[in-house]
Write a structure and sequence with these properties.
Blueprint (H helix, E strand, L loop, with lengths): L1 E9 L30 H10 L6 E3 L3 E5 L3 H10 L6 E5 L5 H14 L9 E6 L7 H16 L3 E6 L10 E7 L6 E7 L4 H10 L2 E11 H11 L1 H12 L2 E5 L2 E5 L2 H4 L7 H4 L11 E5 L10 H7 L8 E3 L2 E4 L5 E4 L4 E4 L4 E5 L4 E5 L6 H10 L10 E4 L2 E8 L3 E8 L7 E3 L3 E9 L2 E5 L2 E5 L4 E4 L5 E4 L6 E9 L8 E4 L6
Parallel strand pairs: 1-2, 1-3, 1-5, 3-4, 4-11, 6-12, 13-15, 14-16, 15-17
Antiparallel strand pairs: 5-9, 6-9, 7-8, 7-9, 8-12, 10-11, 17-18, 19-20, 20-21, 21-28, 22-29, 23-26, 23-28, 24-25, 24-27
GO biological process, one term: GDP-mannose biosynthetic process
Keywords: GTP-binding, Isomerase, Nucleotide-binding, Nucleotidyltransferase, Transferase
Enzyme class: transferase
């Protein structure tokens, strides 16, 4: 029985979906407006590949490739799915997808599952949507059959419009295999005229970025086409470190060696070079309502619309308005007589943009970066491995936060040079280290932490702990933290 190892590529920042997606909480971890309101895009990807097991092959827990900064976001969302045995490969920096897949292949080949470990890898991005899961599973099963023949399979999407943001696959008459079409060649993102020509001609498909192949086939193809990437990835792999977090595993390559790896995509490094080579590549058509959500307009296209074409989420009131996407996170959002708008409301930022120009949201993100504004990277509510905090008010010399701590979790043992803190317990119970003292607080009890004092907040109970923190001092930045001990490896 063949082993199937899903490789979920969970990097990227999703800047075109700002202000909902930010570098500290990118789009793959979001529950997208107008879609499945229970699971994130990342969780949906995990659930899809989990569903393809049959009598011919067994699907292993996924290998998730993500940024070091997002490790606990990914881990928490996996735990929500009861998928606790996953391995998370943590990149210290973004080097694009070819190095990520190479690490996954080395991991797959090196596992001691049996005497000959060469699983079939299902490589898919974590930030796509599919409306027809059954069609997706059938297409993946065909891809697996192709990979069992030591060929490479890629999913191609029938083009619905002359889209210039996707690469294209030209697929020809059926291959010797009964499962796929022969890939003639690839075309990088074309202009509008060329894209329309492709659609008129036929036999052209959007490149989904979803691949299925054996680990050994990828390594052999990379050795053929980009041996420099293979050798540099091997150096980073040889210096890897591992640590277990419950049933899950974190794997970290050597940071210095990883940062020297050439930055390249799977397509450019290998896939586009395969037609006409010794590496057979076939395409399986996927007609399943696929979308990579590359803009707010794409979110509108995939969302559930009312009779006037509006997609809404949250507390909204739309009058005489049509073909809009309106997302309200913290307050009522109302519209009167507007069309084709994207309106996204969050606690600290509101976006209003012409729906047909929503690709240009990236320019706002670039300007936020130029101005060094926090809104580019973080929401007002910031997720941490122990829970979250929400900065609800501030004015010069004070800041007020609402802090929630998970059961049995704790913040780091830390101190601040420039601020003092007052903590008031409003829900649950707290264990507070304040200098040499350890004090237990219940609801409606409080404590003062002087500036320069070592301190720690922990939740000793089995229910959520919530406190209100009032900071006061001459500087209240998040970088005024000196960590001495930390459960999550940040000290």
């Amino acid at each position: 029985m063949d082993q199937i190892l899903p490789v979920i590529l969970c990097g990227g920042s999703g800047t075109r979906l700002w202000p909902l997606s930010r570098s500290g909480f990118p789009k793959q971890f979001l529950v997208i407006p107008g879609g499945d309101e229970k699971t994130s895009l990342f969780q949906q990807a995990v659930l899809r590949v989990r569903s393809i097991s049959n009598v011919c092959f067994r699907v292993e827990p996924p290998l998730v490739v993500t940024n070091e900064e997002h490790r606990f976001l990914a881990l928490d969302q996996l735990r929500d799915l009861k998928n606790n045995q996953s391995t998370l490969f943590l990149e210290p920096s973004g080097r694009n997808t070819a190095p990520a897949l190479t690490m996954a292949a080395l991991f797959a080949i090196g596992r001691e599952v049996n005497s000959k470990s060469d699983p079939i890898l299902i490589v898919l991005p974590a930030d796509q949507v599919v409306s027809d899961d059954d069609a997706f599973i059938r297409a993946l099963q065909k891809c697996i059959c192709i990979a069992q023949e030591d060929s490479i399979a890629i999913l191609g999407i029938p083009p619905a419009s002359p889209e210039t943001g996707y690469g294209y696959i030209k697929a020809m008459a059926p291959h010797d295999s009964k499962f796929g079409l022969r890939v003639d060649h690839f075309v990088e993102k074309p202009d509008k005229f060329t894209a329309q020509k492709f659609i008129d001609e036929g036999n052209y498909f959007w490149n989904s970025g979803i691949f299925v192949l054996r680990a050994s086939v990828w390594l052999a193809a990379l050795k053929e086409f980009r041996p420099d990437i293979l050798s540099s990835v091997k150096k980073a792999w040889e210096g890897k470190a591992e640590d277990n977090v419950g049933d899950a595993k974190f794997m970290r390559p050597d940071r210095e060696a990883f940062n020297l790896i050439p930055c390249e995509s799977i397509d450019c490094a290998v896939i586009e070079k395969c037609p006409g080579s010794n590496f057979v590549i076939q395409m399986v058509e996927l007609d399943a309502g696929w979308n990579d959500l590359g803009s707010w307009d794409a979110v509108w296209q995939t969302g559930q619309k009312d009779e006037l074409g509006n997609v809404t989420s949250g507390d909204t009131l739309l009058l005489n308005s049509k073909n809009n996407l309106v997302y309200a996170d913290h307050r009522l959002v109302g519209t009167v007589g507007v069309e084709n708008l994207i309106i996204i409301e969050t606690a600290d930022a509101i976006l209003v943009v012409d729906r047909l120009k929503s690709q240009n949201v990236k320019h706002i993100v670039n300007e936020l970066a130029n101005q060094k504004r926090d809104e580019k990277n973080l929401h007002r509510k910031v997720v941490r491995p122990w829970g979250w905090y929400d900065s609800i008010d501030e004015d010069g010399c004070f800041k007020v936060k609402r802090i929630q701590v998970k059961p049995a979790a704790s913040l780091s043992l830390q101190m601040h040079h420039y601020r003092a803190e007052h903590w008031i317990v409003v829900r649950g119970s707290a264990e507070v280290t304040n200098g040499e003292e350890v004090i237990f607080l219940k609801e409606n009890q409080s404590i003062y932490i002087p500036r320069g004092q070592k301190h720690r907040l922990a939740n000793p109970g089995d229910t959520l702990l919530e406190i209100i923190e009032v900071q006061s001092g001459e500087y209240l930045g998040e970088d005024d933290i000196v960590r001495f001990k930390d459960t999550y490896g940040r000290s």
